[in-house]
Design brief:
Order of helices and strands: EEEEEHEEEHHEEE
Largest sheet: 7 strands, mixed, barrel
Strand order of the largest sheet: 1-6-5-9-8-7-11
CATH superfamily: PK beta-barrel domain-like
Strand content: 35-45%
CATH architecture: Beta Barrel
Length: 155
């Protein structure tokens, strides 16, 4: 198996929403619960897409196309900077701050219909460039925390 280069970045927004299919608001800091996701977030639960991550670089691409979008606008929980999320395979483990450990479960997603975000923002980058993870070890996550690729569950 080919070894990949481990990488790191920073959390630039921690976002949550009360309902699915809507933009999330940056709350700055939140609790990630073991095998559940972001406390009080509509997408949290005992399933494989507990936490969604999207790179600020992806949001910037949408801005360069003239869209007025910001962290949380694509319904991501964690907006990152400096880490290439799409280079992370399912099974990769991510350490956030000192406590949180997550495992990447899915890259992108299939959208069966255009959601409210698509209509509000004019496009949705999440199906193409967002990733999803489950929480192996919870804790507080906040803006400014580091996010480190710490290999994968098979390695």
């Amino acid at each position: 198996m080919e070894k990949r280069t481990l990488q790191s970045g920073v959390i630039v927004a921690v976002c949550r929403s009360d309902d699915k299919g809507e933009r999330k608001k940056d709350v700055g800091e939140a609790l990630l619960l073991d095998d559940f996701g972001l406390e009080k977030d509509a997408h949290a639960g005992a399933w494989h897409r507990q936490v969604s991550l999207l790179a600020l670089e992806s949001i910037s691409k949408m801005r360069s196309r003239g869209l007025d979008v910001n962290p949380g606008d694509f319904a991501e929980n964690l907006t990152t900077k400096g880490i290439d999320l799409l280079a992370l395979p399912p099974g990769a483990r991510l350490q956030v701050g000192n406590d949180v450990l997550m495992e990447v479960t899915q890259i992108g997603k299939e959208c069966h219909e255009r959601c409210a975000i698509y209509y509000q923002a004019g496009d949705c980058v999440m199906p193409r460039e967002g990733i999803f993870a489950k929480v192996l070890r919870g804790g507080t996550v906040k803006v400014g925390d580091t996010i480190n690729d710490v290999a994968d569950s098979q390695g």
